[in-house]
Every structure is written in C-alpha cells, then in structure tokens.
Amino acid sequence: MSTGDVYACPGGYFCPEGAWLARRAETVCTKGHACPENTSSPVPCAAGYYQDEVGQSSCKTCLQ
C-alpha cells in the first residue's frame, strides 16, 4: 500500500475508524442492523424495518 491509496469498506461489513480492510468475521454486519458501503459501525434498523440475516447492506420492510 502506498500513500494515497483508498480502500472502500464493502456493503454488509463495517470498518471501524482507521480500518481499511473488512471481510472478517468480527466486521460482518449483525442481525438487526444494516451496513451500507463505507460505514464505520452497524446502523440499527429503523422502526418498520428489520434485518434477520448477517452481512447485509440494508434493512427489510416489515409486512403489515
């Protein structure tokens, strides 16, 4: 890696501040959260949404 290289954190994973490498078990997005691309921590699903799988970049809409 050279100065100026930029690494994107892929969707479904989170990269804590200063990290540039994801795709490890400890950085996979957890249930109940979404991890869009380049996020530093899992984002909880909002009211009316859910996520029942790990490693996802978005939450699902609850059925009524």
Could you give a quick summary of the protein structure above?
This protein has no helices and four strands.
Describe the protein's architecture and organization:
- The strands form two sheets. This protein has a two-stranded antiparallel sheet.
- It has strands at 33-34, 43-44, 49-50, 60-61.
- The protein is 0% helix and 12% strand.
- Strand 1 and strand 2 (43-44) form a beta hairpin.
Approximate shape: elongated
Amino-to-carboxy terminus distance: 49 Å
Mind summarizing the main beta sheet?
Answer: 2 strands, antiparallel
Number of strands: 4
**Rg from alpha-carbon coordinates:** 13 Å
Secondary-structure element order, as H and E? EEEE
Mean pLDDT reading: 83
Secondary structure tally, helices: 0
Order of strands across the main sheet: 1-2
- Name the beta content range: 5-15%
Helix content: under 10%
Low-confidence parts: 1-5
Structural class: mainly beta
Keywords summarizing the entry:
mainly beta, 64 residues, two-stranded antiparallel ribbon, 0% helix, two-stranded antiparallel sheet, elongated, disordered N terminus, 12% strand
Tell me the layout of helices and strands.
Layout lengths: L32 E2 L8 E2 L4 E2 L9 E2 L3
